[in-house]
Design a protein that fits this description.
With 217 residues, this protein is of the alpha+beta class. It is built from four helices and 13 strands.
């Protein structure tokens, strides 16, 4: 609650009549070019600010139509199924959630976030079915970072079933499935840095939804 209050006060301060918040129509992209492209791309983007100055940014994106992340919950034993995997950016093995990109191909996800989420859950956690809840407002996806173009959709699935012959992992993925993780342990993982930011964000949204549904207190 303290964080929410501080954030609210900060927003009120910046949005006061003497400091009106700028709107997106005050910013214009004047030039863009791709300077690096492999699995991910880096685009040099020049933006004209409201005061007329032009600022140069490096913007990262990845293939596909965004990304998905999934928190899987077992209502019988009140625990989550998560993953542990190598994360090359920080060169660490961390806990996390099933996640992946939304493929645009009609043969795969056809840009459908829910279908992508269902496929990723099966691939990475060997789970399918269950009751699905979107963790943001309908149709809303969230930018992953200030300098990242990719947006992510988060889901909670309750009581999915184990799959005997799941979809195969991607070549670069080595994932350990970890079952039986309590809500308390999820929060502990977030606090001690044993989960990346996107996984932590989706986990906390999922726990909030589970409280709303009466699954946990």
């Amino acid at each position: 609650f303290a964080v929410s209050i501080c954030a609210t006060l900060a927003t009120q301060s910046h949005n006061s009549p003497s400091h009106p918040a700028p709107t997106i129509d005050k910013y214009s992209i004047v030039e863009e070019k791709v300077v690096y492209s492999r699995w991910r791309t880096v685009t040099q983007r020049k933006v004209r600010y409201p005061k007329g100055n032009i600022v140069d940014f490096d913007i990262q994106d990845q293939r596909g139509a965004g990304a998905v992340i999934i928190f899987a919950w077992d209502s019988k034993n009140k625990t989550a199924t998560i993953v542990r995997e190598y994360m090359p950016g920080c060169h660490r093995v961390l806990g996390g959630l099933a996640a992946g990109i939304i493929e645009t191909s009609p043969d795969k996800h056809d840009s459908d976030p829910l279908l992508a989420a269902q496929h990723e859950l099966e691939e990475e956690c060997h789970l399918a079915g269950g009751t699905w809840h979107r963790l943001t407002d309908e149709g809303v996806s969230i930018p992953m970072d200030k300098y990242v173009q990719t947006e992510i959709s988060a889901f909670l699935v309750i009581d999915p079933s184990r799959v005997e012959n799941p979809r195969p992992l991607d070549d670069e993925e080595e994932i350990e499935i970890v079952r039986g993780i309590s809500a308390k342990e999820i929060v502990s993982m977030v606090r001690r840095g044993d989960m990346n930011l996107v996984g932590a964000w989706a986990s906390l949204l999922a726990l909030e939804k589970l409280r709303e549904l009466g699954e946990i207190r």
